[in-house]
Amino acid sequence: MHPPRLARLLLLSFVPSERRAEIDGDLHEGFLVRAERDGVRSASWWYRRQLFTVDVLRLSALHASSQMPAGPGPFSHRQERGAMLLHDVRHAFRSLARNRLYPLAVVSILGIGIGAVTAVFTLVNGVLLKPLPYRDADRLVMAFRTVPRFGFTRSTVSYPDYVDWRQVSVFETLAAYTSAEGTYHGADGAETWRGYRVTGNLFPMLGVAPLVGRAISDADAEPGAAAVVALSHSLWQSRFGGRADITGQSVRLGDATATIIGVMPPGFAFPTLEADFWAPLRVGAGGAPRDMNFLSVLGRLAPGATVETAQRELAAVAARIDREAPEANEGYGVFVEARRAFMVRDARTGLIAFQLTVILVLALACGCVANLMLTRAASRRRELAVRTALGATRGRLLRQLLTESVLLSAGGGLAGVALAYGLHRLVLHFGAGQLPRLHEISIDGTVLLLTAGTAIVCGLICGLAPALHAGSEALAQSARGEAGSHRGRGARHRLQDGLIVLQFALTAVLLIGTGLVGASFLRLTAVEPGFDPAGVVAGRLSISASTPDALAARERLLTALAARVVALPGVVASGATYSLPFTNFGFSSQMLPEGTVGDVDESPTIQGSTVLGDYFAAIGVPLLSGRNLGPEDRSDAPRVMIVSRSLADRFWPGRDPLGQRVRDGNDADDVATVVGVVADVHQRSLAEPPAPMFYVPLSQAPWSNQMHLVVRTTGDPAALVPLIRRELRAIDPALPLKDVTVASQLIERTVAAPRFRALAFLVLGVFAVILALAGVYGIVSLGVTERRREIGVRMALGAGSRGVIALIVRRGVMLALVGVVVGLAGAVAATRVLASFLFGVAPHDAVIYLGVAIALLFVAATASLLPARRAAQIDPLISLRDA
Amino acid sequence: MASPLGTLQQLALLATVRLGESAYGATIQSELERVSGRQVSIATVYVTMERLEAQGLARSWLGDPTPARGGKARRYYAVTPRGATALLNARQELQRAWAGLDTDPVFGSR
User: What is the pLDDT of residues A580-604, one digit of tens each?
Assistant: First the structure.
């Protein structure tokens, strides 16, 4: 167990040597105490925080100043070094202040690069790296059931399974939870709260203390205990105005009344931030059946146990359960995964790809800045030569130039942090629902430390080549006079050319990424969803019914609601469905066209939905042939269905599907007749092709206890919502309308991430192109200035202005060409990272590669043209005389 | 007399007195955090203690290296007689200032 190495190194480097040993020891001791008490992660954070205080600097100042007067005459070596550093900094400031444009350009270019890296690292740190905010969070693991024959890798488990799993000794604690909904009847109608039923050991295991009262405990889960509920902080604020006497209040949730026992602290997000309440998980005296899989299982590993040992031991238990109760699972496995890895599994690849992309951009920015610095060093040849002649050593000059570049990059770092703060706010605003752990993300000590490190490294990288180079050139000049500088100039040219090539190569990679991601986004949004979302609003109604009377009542209620809603002004159609497109509601059934011979087990699984009323007109799916389902299709009438066009083509290719009969894969007597055909719909996302679908009337599929009311209006669909709620209250005041969404938002949600990727790439790509333009312009301009004499001679010897322009432009374009070729090759390898985010475009799309190559050559030609025209206007007489 | 003691200086001196023979960087840091209820960095502790030392209110000496601290020695602190006087003065000053006041003029009558 050791303190974080980097933080220790940094701290000790700041601390004056007179106190280094004892402070090192104190921190070591403090770390051990906290690691023992709060865990290693928490202790490491504490350790890092020690660095972020002005007093670290004050302490060194205290020692530096207290020693000054004590020195016996001449300064000590250390003090001399300090004085020189101060002098270098002052000198750098002065020399930078002389030319405003140069420091401004360097600071903003580095600022954008560092800012982008910082902003993305903030996400990577907050989402992927930071420990979860629970006690011993690195020992928290999820345990799932797997069912290989269905391809289930992370399935919930049954209560008997959970009880058996608790016996496994690798878990110090094993808790379980399941989602629950509660209908709250407040003053202004019914509303739905989303919550979780949890085992009593869950909250003690997480180790998060409630803000008010107490959390769910083991006693609450005992059979016969009083019904209790703990609230989330946001629900407490929004629904109860944060009143202090909240505990002991009783609240009606659905049919039951529960006593509020506590409120969790703000930001407590188990298992998600959206949780409104937590109630004890209780299983009736008879227990729950082994094939009813409804529990998510979370455990804390015993000290020393790993995910692998847990996986192994749990698998042994699962194998035993499978032997003893084979009918429940038929092939049963387990999968143990760290809680954090489970939470961030979807975000991981995207974030890493994004981080690599912005690092590429930063490399680009550094290349551009190094080039600027080389150019500046060239223009300061004379100054450096004079200083060398006056006795400055090479090391001294080098240090001075490096001071300048580190100072600039520190400015870039500050600008970058400011930019990152701005971007961070944007991410918080637009990232809701797109990233896990979003509320935990912040620009904290780790991020700032990395930013500071990045800025310093950038300063050294950008400054080192120019400084080394300028140092040697200055020496050569002072030794041999002006003529000796040609060798140095050649070396600089090679370096600058190399940087331009590098810049174009990186820009090409980035632009190809932009092209691929942008094309994917355009192709995705061009996909027709198969329904018409404009003017459509939907909301979910949960009505479970089991008796024939209740089933009839439910159908009457929904039919009456649809009829009342259609009478509202502007409404053109209204109906209901189980599987609203772009939601997770759906079911599937094995079925076959009647008369097919073959193994029933291999009959295809088809996606299905139940519908009621004018659903197809409301969602905007055209009926291609046949009739709609209607009131005549009663539960006792012959069974009917509507099929999608792709299902018709699959079952009856080239034949009229109307009147055809379909049988259930498992029940030969369950036969339905096709009465209509509708167009295909993208049921899950735009990226997936529309699946073949069948639709049956609600009356003939009574198990649909979740129905989405779908309403189409000619006006504003959002404005219709209160009117719909009013109609619902008039029929059944106790029934809430849940998940109310405007249909265009359903689609919007699924394209938000691709849009964000396209936008981010576009911004970075534009930045890269601007840098490429500036880079070529700068180097070609410098070339023209340095070659005035040569150009003058050429013109005196009869070269036309066209020839001169061609000469100059050719250099810029040649450099770009080499860079682009290297970049295209790099892109072939690099774009593989993007492959999983592309839609409708291959990672090696030739058109995009070619387009980027042509565009970049055009950029290089344009940027060279301006200095080239200046060269063409050179008067040979003047240039020869001046030179 | 030396300049009046700041709050942090008073707290640090009191922590040193309270800790007695085990007053050194890490323990003073914990004690300050406990009393003030805030995070106090180790650098703050040393800046404060060294200023006190410079004013002659505290003194320090190095102990023997201990293996539990990665083999590093502790710098122990103790309050000098002058420091003790300054602490008492500070307390009396406050007590005089509070004498005869009840809390109403401070918090307003409710």
Answer: 998 877 777 778 888 776 655 566 7
Residue in A374, A388, A379, A373 with CA at minimum distance from that of residue A477: A388
Measured distance CA(A804)–CA(A799) in Å, rounded? 7
A21–B66 C-beta distance less than 8 A: no
Global ipTM = 0.87
pTM over 0.80: no
Output the DSSP codes for A57-85.
HHHHHHHHHHHGGGS-SSPPHHHHHHHHH
A587 contacts A706 by C-beta, under 8 angstroms: no
Nearest alpha carbon to residue A724 among A811, A618, A629: A618
The single residue listed with the structure tokens 């969070």 is A137
Contact B41 A22 (CB under 8 A): no
Which of B 15-44 lie inside 8 A of A, CB atoms? 24-26, 29-30, 39, 41-44
Q: In B, which residues are within 8 Å of A15 by CB distance?
A: 43
Tell me which residue of A542, A540, A562, A560 sits closest to A552, measured CA to CA.
A560
User: What is the rounded average pLDDT of the residues A493-511?
Assistant: 90
Residues 6+ apart with CB under 8 A from B50: A59, A62
Instruction: For chain A, say whether B92 makes contact (Cβ under 8 Å).
Output: no
Band of the pLDDT at A285, cuts 50, 70, 90?
low
- Supply angle C-alpha A479, A480, A486, rounded to 5: 120
Test B46 with A19 for CB contact under 8 angstroms. yes
Amino acid at A621: V
Would the CB atoms of B70 and A23 count as touching at under 8 Å?
Answer: no
Q: Across chain A, what does the average pLDDT equal?
A: 85
Q: Do A203 and A216 contact (CB within 8 A), yes or no?
A: yes
Q: Choose the closest CB to B43 out of A22, A29, A59.
A: A59
Residue numbers of B between 52 and 71 with CB closer than 8 Å to A: 54, 62, 66, 68-71
Which of B41, B50, B72 is facing A25, going by the closest CB pair? Answer: B72
**Residue A50 and residue B72: Cβ atoms within 8 Å?**
no
Strand partners, A352: none
Q: Which residues of B touch A29 (CB under 8 A)?
A: 26, 68-69
How far apart CA A533 and CA A580 sit, in angstroms, is 12
pLDDT digits (tens, 9 = 90+) for B20-67: 999 999 999 999 999 988 889 998 999 999 999 988 999 999 888 777
Question: What pLDDT is recorded for position A482?
Answer: 46
Which range, A46-50, A413-417, A455-459, is most confident?
A413-417
**Which sign, positive or negative, has the C-alpha torsion A29, A32, A35, A37?**
negative
